[in-house]
Amino acid sequence: MSPKKGPKSEEPDGPMPLGLMKEDELLAEYAEQRDPQVREELVRRFLPFARSLALRYRGASEPPDDLIQVASVGLVNALDRYDPERGTPFMAFAAPTIMGELKRHFRDRVWTVRVPRGLHDRMANVESATADLTRDLQRSPSIPEIAERLDIDELEVLEVLEAGNNRRPVSLDQPSGAGEEPDESTPSDWVGEEDPGFELIEGRVALEEAIPHLDERERLVLRLRFAEDMTQSQIAERIGHSQMHVSRILRRTLKRVRERIEEEPEDG
Question: How far is CA 80 from CA 48, 71, 74, in A?
Fold first, then answer.
């Protein structure tokens, strides 16, 4: 009778499934092996983070799906450049890379306002320095820190940032504001309408210059007729004259005003 065999010791059937590995383990393995399947798993895990960065630009004219695709490219670039041995958390490292990819997308494909070549080059330098400093400092760098890194004046950094903020015009039909309770108004609501009385300003000024040359009764009749909108009969009753006499005063006064206005260019 053959002896009984003891129970088999359980041995692992193979490597641990990627889905069960921790992110730090996956990052370390990808940095060493560059396995496309590991990268795919990492992209799946960090894609919500990249999407959240992309949706910061949801108020822009670009479709959200396009922004997420650009952010995904930035995520892959960050994975390819990440070195776990430096000790920097991956998301802190990846955020500037993803944001830089989004900004380049707007700069190269969306922004319509062109700037001088020299300023364009400085914008790229400032963006690169900002990304590097953000990664190194674990926070957004200040203007002096960017200027020191690039060895340029702080005013140049401000000029670059201002140019970057104004390289793309805002649509007059785009709702302003964002968030849970966005402002439904659009920039077109802020644009003033043409004042229908604007073209009358010059004539009004000339009239004001002509009126002081009238006597007191003539000014009174003009005010009652055109400012208080009284009829000639009402004016006649008010000043104690006939309606015919008021009519003659008005005709004579308006003629003098017209003559005075027509003389103004020659006097000037």
Answer: 18, 14, 10
Span 108-154, pLDDT tens digits: 665 555 556 666 677 778 888 888 888 888 788 888 899 899 998 88
**Domain-by-domain residue ranges, the chain?**
17-110, 112-168, 198-267
CA angle 65, 135, 165 (to 5 degrees): 55
- 156-165, long-range: CB within 8 Å, 24+ apart, which pairs? 156/122, 157/126, 159/119, 159/122, 160/119, 160/122, 160/123, 160/126, 161/126, 163/115, 163/119, 163/123, 164/103, 164/107, 164/123, 164/126
**Level-2 CATH architecture, domain 17-110:** Up-down Bundle (1.20)
User: How far apart are the C-alpha atoms of 119 and 150, rounded to whole Å?
Assistant: 14
pTM of structure: 0.42
Class of domain 112-168: mainly alpha
**Domain 198-267 indexed as CATH 3.30.70.20:** no
